[in-house]
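User: I'm curious whether this sequence folds into something compact or stays loose and floppy. Could you predict its structure so I can see for myself?
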Amino acid sequence: MNARFDRIGWGRFAGSGERLARAVTIASVSFARSLLWLLAAIIVGCGVWMLLPLSRGNSTEPVKSDVATVEPAPPGSTAAAVSPIVEAQAPAAAELDRLKISSQTWRRGGLGSKALVTFTLRNDNDYAVKDLEIVCAFTRRDGSHLTDRSRVLADTVTMKSRKTFARIPVGFINVNADQAKCSLVAARRA
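Assistant: Here's the prediction. I'll summarize afterward.
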């Protein structure tokens, strides 16, 4: 009852384990090389991107106010009859001489391309204010002007109080910006 399994040629399967191990080793080495080439391409690409000149959109731009102003019409014109209605619908502007930014700092955010401004606004008026518009002027280390960025804040500051606005994103800034000076441009009565 001997089945004589010793006659089966097990010899051809004996070397397959070594071949499989060699194939796995070659595949892992080629995968590692591919990853290294990919990493090198990413590093070189980022280096080239950092050396590219800035686009024209990052240059100095004029500041445009979002707050509309109502100009009085000359007497005798048809617009003179309409202007009281327009003035009644438009919210009254706040007195800026009683609003003051008492302290301010700034830092970079967004991988160094955005300005985050922290400031404290003091309201000495007898009424609350809202829709605060600030303009921040950014300069180089030597003091030369780079760009202006503006932002309208919809928050309300109550009467005879102060409020701190922390890390408000003002916009994209030049990589050479070193100093910032923010000022209040407009506000409305709440």
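Summary: Residues 91-189 form a domain with the Immunoglobulin-like fold (CATH 2.60.40). The radius of gyration is 34 Å.
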